[in-house]
Amino acid sequence: MQTNSTFSVIFFTRKSSSSLSKLLIYARITVDGKRSEISLKRSVLVNDWDINKARCRGNTSKIRFLNAYLDEVHSKLLDCQKQIFSEGKMVTANSIKARYLGEDENHKTLRDIVEYHNSNMIEVLKFGTMKNYYTTEKYLYKFLDNELKASDIYLKQLNHRFICDFEIFLRNNKNSKNELTLTNNGVMKHLERLKKIINLACKLEWINKNPFQLFQLKFKKFDRQYLSERELELIESTFFKKEGLERVKDCFLFSCYTGLSYVDVKMLKSNHITRGIDNNYWIFTKREKTNETVKIPILPKALEIIKKYKAFSKHNNGEKVLPLYSNQKINVYLKEIAKDCGIHKNLTFHVARHTFATTVMLSNGVPIETVSKLLGHTKLSTTQIYARVVETKISEDIQNLLIRFKTKKEKYQAVNKPIILKA
């Protein structure tokens, strides 16, 4: 903290290029010999400026008003210097000027931090994630415009009420058909993204108090859809005459037996398939979402599908292993597949990933730590979202437990057989 720095403010004039009879008034801030100048957007006649007093001469109402304005500017600049000094920051001519003009961190706005975050994260986050941030940004600006009747707001004005009001706005937001556009978890995801942006503002020291400090995000937990063993067999055993449906069925089943997400199946190339340590075929790739490396042994049913589309892979020089449509088109086809197979579930491509974790892996005794590795998760808690212990597995485990109890009892009885003494 500075204690011996020199600080001064003086007013001076420069000739106006538009009028020879007028002078433009400036304020000069000097700290430790270093200067910074501010144009005050005011002018005075040449004969009305007193160089010695650095004020206007005369007693007209216009002159008195102009001198009062200069006194006010001088007072504000002194206040800016005191504020910066009391905050323990470096007092410089430029920092005082920035504080006075509202261009320093103390005057950063919500738009400033949103733009800073998005411009810096565009190379870090995936396109799909950034698209979600842009949607949150759109809702945020709509809220400012509709509810606060403002185009922007200072970060220091953000408080708990702002967050609560934004939540209410999101919950009540309707589309052109007068339908609510967001569920509870959709609202929470937008607030979660805003929270991350505000946390960044705190780290940059653009805001002193975090408005999210006392706010809790309340997500509703839902059981994720997955296919049972019977439903999986139903799809496997159904042949579709329509080529598009058959392709979608195969790609979906491939995901059920590898755990790869839509984008990872789409990006899968022939050079990602190689021999593993057991001399069997493995998939060595990176998750598009997290860039996490995954190594997946290819189960026989997944390998059959790869071989089925070998001609397709050769046709595009091994660039793609499977013929995948757009995610939207695939999900439309999956609805038709579910209907034809008599499956009463909302079938989407991501259901395959849940099916892999639950029905194919965990239900067959594969440890959750192994499943976590195969799914490419960095945290075990993420895998637990996918993982459910189904009733059949519970029943099977209890039966095995009862068998172990019975075996132990029989062994105990054999060892401790009662001795019968003959008379």
Structural overview:
This protein has 16 helices and eight strands. Helix content is 50%, strand content 12%. The protein is elongated and about 125 Å long. Helix 1 (61-86) packs across helix 2, helix 4 packs across helix 6 and helix 8 packs across helix 12. The chain folds into three domains: 7-106, no CATH class; 108-203; 229-386, hpI Integrase, Chain A (Orthogonal Bundle), CATH 1.10.443.10. The strands form three sheets. Strands 1-2-3 form a three-stranded antiparallel beta sheet, covered by helices on one side. Strands 6-7-8 form a three-stranded antiparallel beta sheet. The chain starts with 6 loop residues before the first strand and ends in an 8-residue tail after the last helix. It is mainly α.
Helix content: 40-55%
Task: Please mark out the parts with pLDDT under 50 across 5 or more consecutive residues, or reply none.
Answer: none
Q: Total helix count?
A: 16
At CATH level 3, the topology of the largest domain is hpI Integrase, Chain A
CATH structural architecture of the largest domain: Orthogonal Bundle
Major β-sheet, in short? 3 strands, antiparallel
Strand content: 5-15%
Strand order in space, largest sheet: 1-2-3
Mean pLDDT: 89
Order of helices and strands: EEEEEHHHHHHHHHEEEHHHHHHH
Shape: elongated
Q: Give the count of structural domains.
A: 3
- The top-level CATH class of the largest domain is Mainly Alpha
Radius of gyration: 35 Å
The CATH superfamily of the largest domain is identified as: Intergrase catalytic core
Termini separation: 105 Å
